[in-house]
Amino acid sequence: VITSGVSRKPGMTREELLQINMNIVTEVTRNVVSYSPNCIIIMVTNPLDAMTYLALRTSRFPKNRVMGLSGVLDTARLRSFIAAELNVSVEDVSACILGQHGEKMVILPRLCTVCGVPITQLLPQETINRLVERTLKAGAEIVGLLKTGSAFYAPSAGATQMVEAIILDKKQILPCATYLDGEYGIKDTVISVPVKLGKSGIEQIIELELTAEEKSALANSAQAVQELVKTIKR
């Protein structure tokens, strides 16, 4: 689990972190490969999608053995907001978020449920829009509140969930930053999509049926990551 890097400061974007954390993650990944060549890498460092791509490129591991935290963290935040709004247990809430770990993530309210009931049947659209907007800006909200650092509790809980799914071979479906090579019509990019996690790492990429509007939003989200990846490729 790679967490090394400079954390976000108030007003700092994930993109501004790229140049700073590129060198750190490259060095750490090389050491990981040297001392543990058969490991599975879980990236936590921001900007997460780009750093996951960098770790994959640096390690030269197969793509099933390099992944990022993003979707697990983003869905956990949205699930907690939905649970608080409806006054229900967060354990009964499922959420679906794809794409970039940032403000261009693609939140799919129609696939967010409480005990199988879509939130579109439980909450007015105005409330859903508010929860979506808060989720998009949740990372910046926490940075603003902490002032001297960024989120740590939810990311650590999310990383633990991923580690347990792999070590215990749970075959658990979780949204993770994953290298796509044609899935969802996207190539050579790392974004969050649902995957099956087991002892081999990413054992399957789950492709959801998306509407035309959702496909367009996901393509735009992937494009934002690709712009960062261009810097890594130089």
From TrEMBL:
Keywords: NAD, Oxidoreductase. InterPro entries: L-lactate/malate_DH, Lactate/malate_DH_C, Lactate/malate_DH_N, Lactate_DH/Glyco_Ohase_4_C, Malate_DH_type3, NAD(P)-bd_dom_sf. Pfam families: Ldh_1_C, Ldh_1_N. The keyword Oxidoreductase applies. Gene3D superfamilies: Lactate dehydrogenase/glycoside hydrolase, family 4, C-terminal, NAD(P)-binding Rossmann-like Domain. Transmembrane segments: none annotated. The keyword Oxidoreductase applies. GO terms for biological process: lactate metabolic process. Residues 73-231 form the Lactate/malate dehydrogenase C-terminal domain. Residues 1-68 form the Lactate/malate dehydrogenase N-terminal domain. One of its GO terms (molecular function) is L-lactate dehydrogenase (NAD+) activity. This is Malate dehydrogenase. It comes from marine sediment metagenome.
